[in-house]
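Let us work through a complete example step by step.
Step 1: write down the sequence.
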Amino acid sequence: MEFAELIKTPRVDGVVLRRPFMPTVEGTLCLTGHHLILSSRQDNTEELWLLHANIDSTEKRFVGSLGTIIVKCKDLRVIQLDIPGMEECLNIASSIEALSTLDSVSLMYPFFYRPLFEVIEDGWQSFVPEESFKDLESMTDEWRLSEVNKDFSVCPSYPSLLTVPRDIDDESLCKAASFRHGGRFPVLSYYHKKNGMVIMRAAQPLTGTNGRRCKEDEKLINATLCAGKRGYIIDTRTIAVAQQAKARGGGFEQEANYPQWRRIHKAIERSNVLQDSLIKLVEACNDQSHSMDRWLSKLEASNWQSNVKEILTTACLAAQCIDREGASVLVHGTEGTDSTLQVTSLAQIILDPACRTIRGFEVLIEREWLQAGHPFQQRCAQSAYSNGKLRSEAPVFLLFLDCVWQILRQFPCSFQFNENLLIMLFEHAYASQFGTFLGNCVAERGKLQLSQKTVSLWSWVNRPQELERFLNPLYEPNNLVIWPSVAPQSLLLWEGVFLRWNRSTKCLDEAYQEMVHIIEYNKELQNKVNSLRRQLAQLETEDSPLQTP
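Step 2: predict the structure and record it as tokens.
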């Protein structure tokens, strides 16, 4: 297919670009196979270069012969294009819709992008499992790298190399894989060098209604326990949802079959609920009513902050089991590719200071998200503005980044990177010139030959001149475990993502933050008053009279 076939009108003069709280720009609109470009001859006017892949939806309006296209983007910005001529407007709108909804991954911009910068470090080769395993080998000899999934036949969504207990052979791994959803058998996620405890991740066991069991699966996760130690299984679903899964062939670990493990259920929402939450949040952030009560009500109704709190709470629980209880942890939900990865990666940020450096955070994204099989292509196909019927879209990765931002804000000196790195990752997960976030798993990326045909995001990020933009000037290495607060007054709206394109709502955000601080101050004041009351009550009930000199 030729892109020219989809472009009905490649160029229109006299187009006016309107963006909230920015000066209007008049210029020439051009459509290419991958970009919408608006260029003006005015001095000091920045050109607009918008990837078609970044467009979530469009709306058309007409007043006489003047047409208007409202373009809503996956990075949450909204722009307006006033186009002279009804036919030109219809043609442009039709072309944008066709070019922004291409089905073939190989037609996307990363396959056509040629970098203008010199690639000093090949990001595709920067994070390989063998290197991470060398670090693990220096601390313990209880684990090995298995090639059981070298052809992706055991588990299509896992990478070819997996870290597993040394005493478990590949035949046992295959049997354990047949007992787990999608073949995602328990594998090592994190080793805590302080006490040797580990975090493992998997998908739900296929126990079904008849209580099926698998001796190899039981042996596999028991191999991670030290003598006399117990472990915790953190199921990211409520007990009700987990019970419902049994009727569909899924389920959870029966305590009788896993006597050394205690199961804990949490309530992280499923993907379709999260997508609805994002849509409601963005709608609230774009509300122009300027009514504080209305805005706060819509913000609360979105449940976005509640989702952030639940994910962070579960991650803190996993970290607490490891560091304070001295117990290993297995984390899973249903498929093991969404909430599971949120919890395991956030727990590592809490526990491991290396994950708070730029390089360490990149390794974490690679290992716990890209190589672990988070389906980026499906989850990030649409954002908050799409009019299309939702399929598998969900802001799972965005929620993770929001949680990281909450921890960064509470511990501003403990992170080598700043908020800019998190925002950049959000943007590139949804639309990018780089191939890093294309595909849903390692196997798919191999078939697409991304490492040969596209440039890695890390090749660009790790250039010294780019790294400077992401460095936190307050950073001081902190080797301690950090424990974020999940109290409502400690979790704030991420203005850098949700309010950056709409300045008119920033005043609402400032008022909201001020209100939160007032509430927090009032609670502290109330606690002091209650403490004084208890002291007075204690004095009044003392039997002995006051002694006078």
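Step 3: interpret the result. Residues 505-509, 543-549 have pLDDT under 50 and may be disordered.
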